[in-house]
Design brief:
Blueprint (H helix, E strand, L loop, with lengths): L17 H13 L17 H20 L14 H19 L4 H20 L21 H23 L7 H11 L3 H4 L10 E7 L4 E7 L4 E5 L7 E6 H8 L5 H7 L1 E4 L1 H9 L6
Parallel strand pairs: 1-4
Antiparallel strand pairs: 1-2, 2-3, 4-5
Length: 284
């Protein structure tokens, strides 16, 4: 029995967020200096222009495969494991980024402006209960609901534009609803991240994200597996508190482990907090 006031997570509607966030990205890009496009980012070896190119790729892919119902090209070799899938995704991302280095910043920005406008049109008309195009693999799902697929796409847009902002010292978007939605979607992957963490009936891990975009989510063990709930139990086995800005950076692979540990305040059993340091809401 799960004690009140915990409740099951409900679908998060991000459809109307694509247009304003994409427009803000275009405004940011049009104001960058030439040198800004080559600044390093938290996205590994990618500089700003590579992250922008990746956003263009994601947007064009979604329009092609989802709106236009074009079948994705098959992988060059069979995918027989999670590692094969990660390598496949990394390879197609790298292929586009490499080719896009022939494009000027203006061309990349124009491409994103046009494609993101069309994608916003598509998502705003898409029912939340429509079939998903892709399952959300970082949540361990083989089949996902449509709102989750759309929401995952929004988290991609949001966290990549934030990588650009961090790189060029631009302020974050001032509407906390966007980050709140990103975190609410990202935490849906926590049960999968905890799948190998031992637990017994009654064990719980409370994640308390502070800040304007924060919230509280609880992982509760039912004797078989961990499940995600919204809210805080009367007494959690382990309580982890961290700011909203650190939470998104952790879950989207932008925060080194030592910095993640430093950002967390842990009460209770520290071994139950360790899996959170390794949790990711992206394919890595």
């Amino acid at each position: 029995m799960i004690p009140m006031p915990l409740s099951l997570p409900q679908p998060t509607d991000t459809r109307m967020f694509f247009r304003p966030v994409s427009a803000a990205v275009v405004t940011l890009l049009r104001g960058l200096r030439a040198a800004d496009w080559n600044r390093p980012t938290v996205a590994g070896a990618w500089v700003v222009r590579d992250v922008v190119a990746h956003l263009v790729d994601l947007t064009l892919r979604r329009l092609s495969f989802h709106r236009d119902a074009m079948a994705p090209p098959p992988p060059s070799r069979p995918i027989n494991s999670d590692r094969d899938f990660v390598e496949f995704i990394n390879s197609i991302n790298a292929q586009w980024v490499e080719a896009s280095r022939r494009f000027s910043p203006r061309v990349l920005t124009d491409l994103f402006e046009l494609a993101s406008h069309d994608l916003a049109d598509w998502f705003e008309k898409r029912p939340l209960d429509a079939p998903a195009l892709f399952s959300v693999s970082w949540a361990g799902e083989q089949v996902s609901e449509g709102w989750f697929d759309i929401g995952r796409e929004f988290t991609e847009l949001w966290h990549h534009q934030e990588q650009i902002r961090l790189a060029v010292d631009a302020p974050p978007l001032d509407d906390s609803r966007y980050l709140a939605a990103v975190i609410d979607i990202a935490v849906r992957g926590l049960p999968h991240a905890y799948r190998d963490v031992p637990g017994t009936t009654g064990h719980s891990v409370l994640l308390d994200v502070t800040g304007a975009a924060g919230g509280q989510w609880t992982l509760a063990h039912d004797g078989t597996r961990w499940t995600l709930w919204v809210g805080a139990p009367s007494a959690a086995t382990t309580r982890v508190s961290m700011p909203d800005d650190s939470a998104w950076q952790l879950l989207f692979n932008a925060l080194p482990a030592r910095d993640a540990v430093a950002a967390m305040h842990v009460e209770g059993e520290p071994e139950l907090a360790a899996a959170l340091v390794r949790a990711r809401s992206v394919i890595v």
